[in-house]
Amino acid sequence: MKVAITGGTGFIGKHLIQHFLQQKISVVVVSRQKQKSEHPLIRYTTYAELEERVQPLDGVDAIVNLAGESINQRWTSEAKKRILQSRLDAVAAVSSWIERLEHKPVLINASGIAIYGTSDDDTFIEESEWKKDDFLSSVVDQWEAAAEIIADTRVVLLRLGLVLGKDGGAFPRMVTPFKLGLGGRVGTGKQIISWIHITDLCRLIQFCIEQEDLEGPVNATSPVSVTNEEFGRKVASKLGKPFMVPAPAFLMKLMFGDMSELLLKGQRVFPAVAIQRNFQYNYPILELALDELLPEKKSSKALKEGSS
How many whole angstroms separate alpha carbon 83 and alpha carbon 71? Predict the structure, then answer.
């Protein structure tokens, strides 16, 4: 198999590249700046190069499009424009490549569970209706619409939940207050967190590529969501720290502006397509994910005994 990745320098992209390399899958990384490959299975190309000639993508079986400006910034009017336009521009570029390729690769296009809107009560699956009731749901709706009209190829819309990993994304920042003994619920604590471990996300992407009759929306979440309070209590317990200091909603809004929606609102999203197709999660529940993400540190006594 040969796979092309846009957004390969980001948190998810770096893990996905390593996952494919472990599977002996060749990777073409598309970025803004030309890079030199030091691995026999990795080749680099640029958007500019692909505008001129699409040959660097000859023979790819899939394109995984992860490109788009980070939403983890204050949502000024200019930032909102960049967040949307960066995603539309990336899809347009991918569409151009596919149109010019003789062998049409499947497109795995990153999307988001934000498309469903927010709710503390409803459970959303891929077939659920949604309403564009906020900035992010509108962005994802337009993002998916741009990808769906790409002709002559299979398109999977990978709706990402909160991706948990040790070395990037939101998780390290979420855990920091708990490590300092200052962790607690955010807002009411009732908002739902639909999450997925980075390892399972990479495995799910490969799964979607290999399922040749799979297309359309796929929820990239674990089967078991948790509330913000449940998440915090489990993290605190794993770290052996107190769960005590709440972060009030007004403070989050003051600090983050409109972006506080990411912290104060949520939705319960169930991965119906993945479950129906018997995708096997390594980390289906949060406790298993935290065991890997926050491994217990051996005491100095245990370390001495182990080395003797």
Answer: 7
**Region of residue 272 (phi > 0: left; psi between -120 and 50: alpha; otherwise: beta):** alpha
Q: Where do the domains of the chain lie?
A: 2-293
The CA distance from 42 to 37, in Å, is: 6
Distance set, CA 112 to CA 37, 120, 162, 174, 275 (Å): 31, 18, 9, 19, 18
pLDDT tens digits, residue range 256-289?
787 788 888 899 999 999 999 999 999 999 999 9
| Cα three-residue angle 59-64-68, rounded to 5 degrees | 135
pLDDT tens, 215-250?
A: 999 999 999 999 999 999 999 999 999 998 888 887
Tell me the longest C-alpha to C-alpha distance in the chain.
Answer: 64
Distance CA 173, CA 26 (A): 33
Instruction: Give the global pTM.
Output: 0.93
Place domain 2-293 in its CATH homologous superfamily: NAD(P)-binding Rossmann-like Domain (3.40.50.720)
